Amino acid sequence: MDENIGFKNNFLWGGATAANQIEGAFDIDGKGLSSADFIEYIPKEQRTKDNHMEVTTEHIESVLSGEHSGRFPKREGINFYHRYEEDIKLLAEMGFKAFRLSIHWSRIFPSGYEEKPNEAGLAFYDKVFKTLRKYNIEPIVTLSHYETPYGLTEKYNGWMGRAVIGHFERYAKTVFKRYKGLVKYWITFNEINIINISPFTGGGVISDQLANPLGDPYQALHHQLVASSLATKALREIDSDAQIGCMLARMKHYPYTCNPEDVLKAMQDDQMNLLYTDVHVLGEYPNYYKRFLKENHIELKFEEGDLEILKSYTVDYISFSYYMSLLSANSEEGERTEGNLMNSLKNPYLEASDWGWQIDPIGIRIVLNEFWDRYHKPLFIVENGLGAKDKVESDGTINDTYRIDYLEKHITEIKKAVLDGVNVMGYLAWGPIDLVSMSTSEMSKRYGFIYVDKDDEGNGTEKRIKKKSFNWFKHIIQTNGSHL
């Protein structure tokens, strides 16, 4: 095999972010509140459970009344709203071919259900997308990235309400028409499987208002899947030159041992992770899911035409995040990883990040091959990276060699997958500029090639500083990964 064959010339190198983690400006130019605006920063020593992304009705009421005095870092982000030109120029200096970002739905429709959009919000993204185009950077735009307008939570308990489908469809059509010619690649829902792990994060659903906390999020999921298909239909009617994909938090499960019971459990866990792409790509609910619903006494409500919509409007490509692999066992006894939204039994063959995420570069090659074998659809890695504690040295440098090591190992395995014959569209490193952590609302959990001078308490100058990894990734892009 010719080892010089690798990434195609139009491979989309770049980075990925989310509006709620970078923009700030949460209450200006007509923007409404979103689910992210209620997520409080809690110092690690005060956290009481792994999954602290959920909120209660009581919490929301206390925040809205002003009684709650906590910090909400996603309201501040890193001030991308006012510094986007500076930040995009730095990404261009690295040679980015693509930049993934999301539109804050509540900038366009402040409560989520208005009839007419907020022009100031639309105008902001006009400027961002035109700036990206100025530097020949392809915008990869997510419609909903953990940013459900709070108005929809208040009125319908988020995606539990069937009516939200229509509001999302209006929003999608509005931005498809507005940004036709500026945006060629769209993603409907970020990590759509998170709605069944953290309903508030994934869909603005408050769990303490659910009659069936296990089953009800699957109804909300059905609404999102129908909405995703209707958005796909709308894009094809509005801009036939653009493409639209789904997005999954890929959580590859290995069996803890070669005991067939562990192997079976790993297969079942993998199936439930791939449920979301099965529907998006194959256009129907798989039999294993129907069995799961029946065994757990979950009855979904369908409206006439739902299944035909899912079947008729499948995605153009599959995008996904990959950070770690997990272990499955018939018995849950044993040491567990730390994790945040995701944890599992500890894999003795893997190292872990500062936040307990198991580092498994070979896993991304496995995932890519399995996706390709299952679907034969183009694949897009739209999140991968290392959250770590970075130190600014006395001379102002940041020697993040550990990040370079992490990314190099993963990109090398991606290249091997390409040599295996997998069609990979691109690679977007998560958080190319430091941002507020999704799961912990920390700034100290840094992913970027660019350091942002801001700490967990919100102190700092917001100054941008290039890390050692900045020039390393620039070289990767310049050489199209040929030296790996």
TrEMBL record:
Keyword Ion transport set for record: no
> What would be one Pfam family of this protein?
Glyco_hydro_1
Q: List the coiled-coil residues.
A: none
Q: What is its EC number?
A: 3.2.1.86
A GO cellular component term found in this entry reads:
cytosol
* Highest taxon, organism lineage: Bacteria
InterPro entries registered for this protein in UniProt: GH, GH_1_N_CS, Glyco_hydro_1, Glyco_hydro_1_AS
Which residues constitute the catalytic centre? E383
Sorted alphabetically, which keywords does the UniProt record give?
Glycosidase, Hydrolase
GO terms (molecular function) for this protein are: 6-phospho-beta-glucosidase activity
Task: Name the Gene3D superfamilies on file.
Answer: Glycosidases
Enzyme class, spelled out = hydrolase
BP GO annotations: carbohydrate catabolic process
Q: Which family does it belong to?
A: Belongs to the glycosyl hydrolase 1 family.
* Protein name (database record): Beta-glucosidase
- In the UniProt record, what gene is named as encoding this protein? bglH
